[in-house]
Amino acid sequence: MIRHIFTVSTGTLASRLLGFLRDAMVAALLGAGPIADALLVAFQLVNVVRRLLSEGALNAALVPAYWRVRDSEGDAAAAAFAGRVLGTISLALFVVAAVVALAMPLVIALLAPGFVGTPTLQLAVDDARLMLPYLAFAGPVTVMMGLLNAQHRFVLTAFSPLLFNLALIATALALLVWRQDAAHSAMVIAAAVGIAGLLQLLVLATRGGGLATPLRVSFDAEMRGFIGKAIPGMIANSGPQLLVVAGAVIASASPAAVSWLYFANRLIELPLGIVGVAMGTVLVPELTRATRSDDAVSFTQTASRGIELAVGLALPAMLGLMILSQPIVRALFEHGAFTADDAHATALALSCLALGLPAHVLVKALAPAFFSRGDTGTPCRAVVISIVVTVVLALLLGHWFGASGVAIAIALGAWSNAMSLIRRAASSFGAHIDATARRRLPRIVAAALVMGGALWLCAAFALPAISGAHGMVRIVTLGLLIAGGVVAYGLLLRLFGVVTWTEALRAWRSAPPRD
Q1: What is the C-alpha to C-alpha distance for residues 329 and 340, in angstroms, rounded to an integer?
Q2: What angle do CA 36, 194, 128 make, to 5 degrees?
Q3: Sign of dihedral through CA atoms 184, 100, 371, 438?
Q4: What is the CA radius of gyration of the chain?
Q5: pTM, whole model, 2 decimals?
Q6: Mind listing the pLDDT tens digit for each residue in 323-334?
Q7: Omega of the bond leading into 214 within 30 degrees of 0 (cis)
Q8: Residue 99 class from Cβ within 10 Å (0-12 exposed, 13-18 middle, 19+ buried)?
């Protein structure tokens, strides 16, 4: 399991780093004004649909259903079931895309009510309509990724999203070279989103096409049952993105606030993607296998290792992002049209959003325990409650503290989600962590706090000394601080007896990849 998680994490890390490069180019092209707000709201619409479907979300329903058919009826029946899923979802998303295109002014008005009555609304509508062809490719891409994950073929699904970002980076780079105006650049970037989705589909189709045959459209009882479980499962697995959208709805009334929250959240998605998405992709098959074989010991061990990874990687990431928020945002985004004031506001929002990072990752570790039992409704209800919490708090805190107040509301909504799942897991099926996790978790927290204190001291001395230095000097210093924090944390984990090098190597070798 650890090796599979590392594989998915590596692919997600590469995709997120390319995403940073993409967003840095967009920030330099558009800054943080109305044109950027319009593009980013439109992109959030497409991105949320992408996250609803992919990045482990469809595993919640597809993997258990696919395995159930394969175990009871054989590989041919499983491939036929997958073919029906592929055809039905593709057609459904095509119809949804057409309907949304017609109703786009209303959709954008609901997502960004602050745009109503301003030219920004029409800009967002135009950008969103140009992005909609991506939805026609999102369905088959999602199904193919889920089927490959069910076969424990994680490498291709982990690295195929790189094509999405590479296509957008190439587009942004061309716009930077040819110096187009901001409005034209936004339209070109929006149009490139569909092309990026097509590239991803072509790669997946060439490697996994035989897993879903024959291709059919069906709305029989079996398919309706699958869709009935898939929709709440996808909502449950997309909690972080839905909370940000809920916050952006409130923030849209403030100029540039949507852009600040978007760029801050992009930094949160790096550790969230590396840990959370990887666990959501790998834990569902592992826990489903333990559940179907009624192996309570294996289930508890797998869930405990997932929680250890969630806390062990999310907590130091939270501290690092809070301590280094200002230099990180300046290094990544303070270029071109993105001003120093924009960087300062984005860094404040980042510090507040980081408070919810451990909760987001805990949800990614806890939700698969429900998904493996075919229960997608409980995590979905927890997400809906957390959205309500976020909206109510964002209305209050956003009024007092602006974009930073909305960011705090998003973090508190994430903790509401996590606490709901913890309570339900304990009461529904007696979920608990094993003795190893009970021993390791306090030590992990202690190691993270010591690392955070050391990083804060180093940053307090190093960063003021280079405040007037060349940009490359500041970037190198920031890189050294981050690398030093990672090394120190690893040594502290060893010193506190959390894990030894032998144990880490054994965990790596215990689950060789099958692709």
Answers
A1: 10
A2: 40
A3: positive
A4: 22
A5: 0.75
A6: 999 999 988 888
A7: yes
A8: exposed
Write down which residue in 433, 465, 493 finishes a domain.
433
Last residue of a domain, one of 433, 448, 463: 433
- Name the token pair of 368: 């698969």
- For residues 337 and 185, the answer to whether their CB atoms sit within 8 Å is no
**How many domains is the chain partitioned into structurally?**
2
Q: How far is CA 324 from CA 14, 17, 272, 321, 410, in A?
A: 21, 17, 17, 5, 20
**CB under 8 A, 24+ apart: contacts of 294-298:** none
- Asked if residue 160 belongs to a domain, the reply is yes
User: Both 314 and 212 in a single domain?
Assistant: yes
Query: Is there a single domain that holds both residue 426 and residue 461?
Result: no
Same domain, 296 and 310: yes
Contact 98, 91 (CB under 8 A): no
Could you tell me the two tokens for 31? 């800054």
Q: Which of 202, 74, 183, 65 is nearest to 123 (CA)?
A: 183
DSSP letter for each residue of 141-162: HHHHHHHHHHTT-HHHHHHTHH
Whether residues 398 and 365 share a domain: the answer is: yes
Q: Is residue 246 part of a domain?
A: yes
Q: What per-residue string of b and e applies to 39-61 under the rule 16 or more CB within 10 Å gives b?
A: bbbbbbbbbbbbbbbbbbbbbbb
Candidates 43, 389, 100; CA nearest to 247 is: 389
401 and 264 both lie in a single domain: yes
pLDDT at 81: 85
Can you tell me which residue has the tokens 């969103």?
128
In a domain, 394, yes or no: yes
pLDDT in tens, 143-186: 777 777 667 666 666 667 788 888 889 998 888 888 777 888 88
In a domain, 515, yes or no: no
Same domain for 71 and 115, yes or no, is: yes
Amino acid at 1: M
| Residue 469 to residue 361: CA distance in whole angstroms | 36
Domain extent for 462? 439-510
Question: 389 is written with which tokens?
Answer: 């919490």
Instruction: Please give the single-letter amino acid code of residue 381.
Output: R
Note the pLDDT tens digit of each residue in 202-248: 877 776 656 777 878 888 887 887 777 777 877 877 788 889 888 88
**Which two three-digit tokens encode residue 229?**
């479980």
> 394 and 253 in contact (C-beta within 8 Å)?
no
Query: Could you tell me if 497 and 379 lie in one domain?
Result: no
Do 320 and 213 share a structural domain?
yes
Percent of the chain predicted with pLDDT > 70:
84
Please state, in angstroms and as integers, the Cα–Cα distance from residue 155 to each residue in 6, 165, 208, 232, following that order: 10, 17, 12, 27
Q: What is the DSSP letter of 373?
A: T
Encoded tokens for 327: 């230099």
